[in-house]
Amino acid sequence: MASLLQPPAPVFTGASSTVPEPLLSSEGREWNGIVVEHYRIRDVDFVKQDAAHTVAVFLRGPVNLVQQRSGRVYQRTLHAGDVIIAPAGEPRALRHKEETELVKLRLTPSFVAGIIENPVANGSGPVELLDIFGARDARIEDIARRLVGEIKADALAGRLYAESLATELAVHLLRHYSTASKPTNGASRMLPRYKLQRVTDYINDNLREDLTLSKISAVLSMSPYHFAHAFRQTTGLAPHRYVIQRRIERARFLLRETYLSITEIAHQVGYANQSNFSVVFHQFTGQTPRGFRNNA
Question: Whose CB among 99, 109, 163, 181 lies 3.0–4.6 Å from 42's, allowing a Cys bridge?
Fold first, then answer.
């Protein structure tokens, strides 16, 4: 349990403004609304003011962490699986000596705000994330690990998947760690047949493109969250899963019916290179593209 230290003033007098460099980062990948950073650090003592909402997920511990924020100083021993949620804006100082490994998920406030249908919760003012120091949340940890996996995979389709995970994370934070009691509309809503046809036609016509949740949902003039929810209610599949299935189905056809090279087929179905395409194809079919073509 976190303990409040008094007085707070002398704790961080020598803190630096230099933030350690991450081992891995999604910076530059143009993931909409989120930046993911994977760190292995020790001897930390710095102050930072972040314009993004930051979720830190510890992958290794224990670590004795001291945090100063909003004029208060907290101390807690954190273990693997512990989570810190820091809303954007307020400067935060951190200190620990032990080596630890963690993932930072940085969500832009505009991305989070776009998920909320009504920005005022129960007439009490704008919805705000809560400052959480040391929660246990298996769902956030799972999202963090999957996002790091997408950085390592370096696949073109990863952008759509990352945006889906960012949306899932934002909804989870709003439901469980915000001032809103009902920040999103939980009513079950399915897509009308004509809207489903329009969006699936768009996906099928653009399989070779860098499809994102924002681009797909814009076809129906819906927010990414509400589109993803309605699409899943209607089809039983998350949008990124549907896109991957359609890409593999198109690839199977091209392997069976054409003499295009495997590299060219990979490009036609939206993969940057043959290696990434072959990994996903094998996951879905149990065969390599070459093996499938030879047996077709």
Answer: 99
